[in-house]
Amino acid sequence: MRLLLVEDDAALAQNLRDHLQQLLYSVDLATDGEIGLFQGQEYDYDAAIIDVGLPKLDGISLIRALRDAQRDFPVIILTARDSWQDKVEGLDAGADDYLTKPFHPEELSARLKALIRRSAGKASPVINNGPLSLNSASGEVLLHGQSVNLSGSEYKLLQFLMLHRGEVKSKTVLTEHIYDQDFDLDSNVIEVFIRRLRKKLDPDNSLGLIETLRGQGYRLNKLDDAQGG
Prior knowledge:
Elements: E1 2-6, H1 10-22, E2 26-30, H2 33-42, E3 47-51, H3 59-68, E4 75-79, H4 84-93, E5 97-100, H5 105-119, E6 126-129, E7 132-135, E8 140-143, E9 146-147, H6 152-163, E10 168-169, H7 171-178, H8 189-201, E11 210-213, E12 217-220
Parallel strand pairs: 1-2, 1-3, 3-4, 4-5
Antiparallel strand pairs: 6-7, 7-8, 8-9, 10-12, 11-12
């Protein structure tokens, strides 16, 4: 999952970035509203965390500009103001949730997970697909009820595909959602991780779990409940 963090407080930004990266998010950091607007228009994020009190372009104006540009990824606003009017203003501008400073990083991560799930039409932290299930709260992946050991990158790739199962995703899109913006997008690393996932989850292709579409990318197919037996 790839996040946009727009925060001008250097210490807070670094702490949040470290915390989120430990949770296997890829995090792009912008230190003012103008940079945040450029990045939000340039890249397709899974969610954004935006401080209200930003230099050059304040957070509320930034959110309005992103929504006007048809950028519909979930947004959490961070604010040091605790009046209900400020919260309403942020939500009316297009934010999906808010946190008042100071806050616990664990609360931020829990809200992020919920927003990303809801934006993909998934209310529960457990995503099921036939015999395969992924719990975004615990990070556990089960196949036929048995735990599957995945690396961090393999887990991030599977989670994104599970949230968008049935959809074709190009290597570029997959790379952008798994790695930070300075990663080499021409890398063939996605092919490597797809092979590893197939080997661990569907080695004989009996499920037909991950499909390669030549010249287009990959699709994690929707599996019937009957395939879980």
